[in-house]
Write a structure and sequence with these properties.
Layout (H helix, E strand, L loop, with lengths): L4 H17 L37 E3 L8 E7 L4 H4 L10 E7 L5 H10 L8 E5 L11 H18 L3 E4 L9 H17 L3 E3 L26 H8 L8 H16 L72 H14 L1
Parallel strand pairs: 2-3, 2-4, 4-5, 5-6
Antiparallel strand pairs: 1-3
Length: about 350
């Protein structure tokens, strides 16, 4: 017996509802649509070998023969990729550099790589880049601090002299959240007596050329997480990484105890936070300082004003006061009246 039209319509509606319920939606990562994008340039990302320990791309660059130079070993995530590939070069000097870069790695994964890293020569300094990938991981700040503490303890157990360099800011993460992570990482380093150097002040967010432009087409062969990291705040090779390299070099140069003059082309940028200082050039007018026999006009708390008592300068007061002017005849009459009262 043929079915009626209403039955067929209801069956079709059920099938459409079932299709909507079983729709496969790929995982979405919330991103700030209002976040600005960098305008700088970044090189095409090279494919590295995948580590069997963490499943992430990994590259270990051992320092060359020192020949009297201090050996510095930098450990971090994808922020060290341009330095490890030699795209951005560090300033010349009395330092020999080695790198261990694991793009997209968290503090726990970096700790795993450090435990199994084969570094035949003990470096004079190990510079740890604070892990920035914990910003986008589903971790609390407390857990991120605990992971960083275990990571830093592992590094300190392998090498004697260690310092921590702050991670560069990202455009797509709130400044307040980044600052909370920086403060927590700094507390961990302070408890372990490891120096922590802040660098965020050297990368103002309004200078978009410090970060690279959107690199979707160049990051298609990466994992979705690495592509997100690539698009969400990597420093540009032409501007941002140049500043980062100078900051890294300055920290290493000071921490290795080498106080020699900076090589040509390197600006002396302090690695820690700083307060701008105004330098005034030209003619500076200096106010005339009264002599012991002169009078000046001051008010309460030493501020200049009028109508105050008469005290001569140098009479033991902290600031000379203004005289009340009388004629010589009036002063003589007042002296006579005062003498008669006595």
């Amino acid at each position: 017996m043929p079915r009626k039209k209403n039955f067929r319509i209801s069956q079709a509606a059920r099938r459409r509802a079932a299709d909507r319920r079983t729709l496969d939606v790929s995982p979405q990562v919330p991103m700030d649509r209002c976040a600005p994008h960098g305008t700088g340039h970044r090189h095409k990302v090279k494919r590295w070998e995948v580590s069997v320990l963490t499943g992430r791309q990994h590259k270990l660059v051992l320092p060359p023969e020192s020949h009297g130079k201090k050996v510095v070993f930098a450990i971090g995530d994808s922020h060290l990729r341009s330095l490890a590939d030699g795209i951005v070069r560090l300033p010349e000097g009395r330092l020999a550099w080695g790198f261990m870069s694991t793009p997209g790695a968290s503090a726990t994964e970096l700790r795993t790589e450090v435990l199994h890293a084969e570094v035949p020569q003990d470096p004079d300094l190990v510079c740890v880049l604070a892990p920035s990938n914990d910003l986008t991981a589903k971790h609390t700040i407390g857990r991120a601090a605990a992971d960083f503490e275990r990571y830093l303890a592992t590094v300190c157990s392998r090498w004697p002299k260690v310092c921590v360099l702050d991670f560069p800011p990202r455009l797509t993460v709130e400044d307040s959240l980044q600052e909370l992570y920086r403060q927590e990482f700094h507390r961990v380093a302070a408890r372990m007596a490891v120096k922590y150097f802040h660098i965020a002040d050297h990368f103002p967010r309004q200078c978009l050329n410090l970060w690279s432009r959107d690199g979707v087409s160049r990051a298609l062969f990466l994992s979705w997480f690495d592509a997100l990291v690539f698009m969400s705040g990597h420093l540009s090779d032409d501007v941002g990484m140049e500043i980062f390299a100078q900051l890294l070099w300055t920290v290493a140069y000071t921490q290795t105890g080498d106080r020699a003059a900076s090589p040509a082309g390197v600006s002396s940028i302090p690695p820690s936070r700083f307060t701008p200082r105004w330098v005034v050039k030209g003619e500076v007018r200096v106010r005339h300082s009264p002599g012991p026999e002169e009078w000046t006009v001051v008010g309460p708390s030493g501020k200049s004003s009028g109508g105050c008592s008469a005290v001569q300068a140098g009479a033991g007061w902290p600031s000379p006061l203004n005289p009340v002017l009388f004629s010589s005849e009036m002063l003589e009459e007042m002296e006579k009246v005062f003498s008669n009262q006595i």
